[in-house]
Amino acid sequence: MHRPAASGTLVGVALVVGSCLSLPFGAAVAAQLFPVLGPWGVTSLRVAIAAMLLVLIVRPRPRRWTRPQWIAAVLFGVSLAAMNGFFYAAIDRIPLGPAVAIEFLGPLVLAAVLTRRLADAAWVGVALLGMVVLGVDGLIGAEPLDPLGVVFILVAAGFWVMYIRMSARVGALIPGSGGLAMGLLVAAVLLIPVGIPAAATVAADPQLLLLAAITAVLSSVIPYSFELAALRRLPQRVFGVLLSLEPAFATLAGWLILGQDATPLRMLAVALVIAASVGTTLGVRRDRRDGPAGPFTAPIPLPD
């Protein structure tokens, strides 16, 4: 079996870090639009603008696609629409850092399911401990988390798992970024009913349109392109744990842009998930350098 080189692992890790850095800052910009457009309106505009940009840049040719390719792209689009909509609905009610950390339960569970190595399971446990610390902070902190916001972010976490699986599927079946462009287009069509009022509002205000475009680039175009490329270089279990870096950047973005506090418990949670990310990355590099690939050192093939 062909095994990706260690340099490929480093590139994959760098792509995930770039995605984790871009997404929360895009979300912080998006949160400033919620009072005017609402979370679902912002979601619709963000996805629609990102879809238009990628379709123009990539110029996909879906007429040549097979039935499995179309199914993968459509399901990818469903996951994008639901994941983003419920995420924005959540951060309209709870702080950005805790929201991203709770949402990470989705990829964390996926990583736990896909791993058979004791070391990987241990790092998943470290990341889970970080989520527990964050949950304690949300319960006993000065600002308890809104229950409906927590429900929304847990729904988003479920669709995040679907996103990871379908992103890997699209990356395996459709060359280049054509699958991502069409997936975003499908998501934009699904979100049209909630996006029409928001589109009418931004059409009359160029400043709102600019903020929506910045949100689309930071929250969709850059991170999804990076993640699609990363999933071609990293196992899904490693990708899932590496995403635990996102709460750290989300906490930073919430503090810098939205003025949200970073309590000692939140910082401890962030430190734990960063440790999990570093540990799992070093583990997969060592596996690829020292010996044959095990059953979970390559992306898991998904069913047709």
Tell me what portion of residues adopts beta-strand conformation.
Answer: under 5%
Q: What's the total count of β strands?
A: 0
Q: Classify the helix fraction into a percent range.
A: over 70%
Q: Count up the domains.
A: 1
Q: What is the first-to-last residue Cα distance?
A: 21 Å
Tell me the overall shape.
globular
- Which stretches are poorly predicted, pLDDT < 50 over at least 5 residues? 290-304
Count of runs of 4 or more consecutive helical residues: 14
Structural class per helix/strand content? mainly alpha
Q: Encode the helix/strand succession as letters.
A: HHHHHHHHHHHHHH
What is the radius of gyration computed over CA atoms, rounded to a whole number of angstroms? 19 Å
Give a structural overview.
The protein has one domain (14-290). The longest helix is centred in the middle third of the chain and has 27 residues, at 147-173. The protein contains 14 helices and no strands. With 304 residues, it is mainly alpha-helical. Residues 290-304 have low confidence and may be disordered. The protein has helices at residues 6-31, 34-37, 39-58, 67-91, 96-103, 105-114, 118-140, 147-173, 178-190, 192-203, 206-230, 236-242, 246-258, 264-290. The chain crosses the membrane at residues 40-58, 70-90, 96-114, 121-142, 148-166, 178-196, 208-226, 238-258, 264-284. InterPro entries: AA-Vitamin_Transporters (IPR050638), EamA_dom (IPR000620), EmrE-like (IPR037185).
